[in-house]
Amino acid sequence: xxxxxxxxxxxxxxxxxxxxxxxxxxxxxxxxxxxxxxxxxxxxxxxxxxxxxxxxxxxxxxxxxxxxxxxxxxxxxxxxxxxxxxxxxxxxxxxxxxxxxxxxxxxxxxxxx
Amino acid sequence: xxxxxxxxxxxxxxxxxxxxxxxxxxxxxxxxxxxxxxxxxxxxxxxxxxxxxxxxxxxxxxxxxxxxxxxxxxxxxxxxxxxxxxxxxxxxxxxxxxxxxxxxxxxxxxxxxx
Lengths: 113, 114
Hints:
The complex is a heterodimer.
Chain A (H helix, E strand, L loop, with lengths): L3 E4 L2 E5 L4 E7 L4 E9 L6 E7 L4 E4 L2 E6 L4 E6 L8 E9 L7 E2 L3 E6 L1
Parallel strand pairs in A: 2-11
Antiparallel strand pairs in A: 1-3, 3-8, 4-5, 4-9, 6-7, 7-8, 9-10, 9-11
Chain B lengths: L3 E4 L2 E4 L5 E7 L5 E7 L5 E8 L2 E5 L6 E7 L2 E6 L8 E8 L9 E2 L3 E5 L1
Parallel strand pairs in B: 2-11
Antiparallel strand pairs in B: 1-3, 3-8, 4-5, 4-9, 5-6, 7-8, 9-10, 9-11
């Protein structure tokens, strides 16, 4: 089955800095890679996603890159703000997984004012 | 206009009891999921139903039994609750085969077994 590794587990930045979170996956059949943000006590919410036929996608301050050959994808947040502080999860699905999302271990992002 | 809803939000119970969690979605999706989030925040799939048919059944104790009466509802019944069952349980849904596969999560049910 799919295995997703996520790094770092914690990330602390100053407001205005950039933050990068990296994930690797094992199943070459995976073709959909969403990123979720989870604030304390809340549900995971999709912030951006990418499919395997695209190498990069951007939405305002958030971007995701995908390297299919190396089987890794990354989340980039620019001009971080305190409200970006949360747990971020990468995930992968596709192939014969029947839509099952395999999540990374999560990254606790703290943005200091 | 809640998209994915769960009840109850909190559930505190004694070891050995039986409890149920309910999930409903009004997004017109055909697939629903149960995920468990443990104390270390790790999210793991438990079950999935597509059009009322069980399609994913991970290695979960058979004390856990999902049930989908229709495409919009997915319930989770847990028998003989154990301390290790304490976690947050999230329901999610999507439309399989759609262009995005985006899964939308419910607010979660925090289960505490004493």
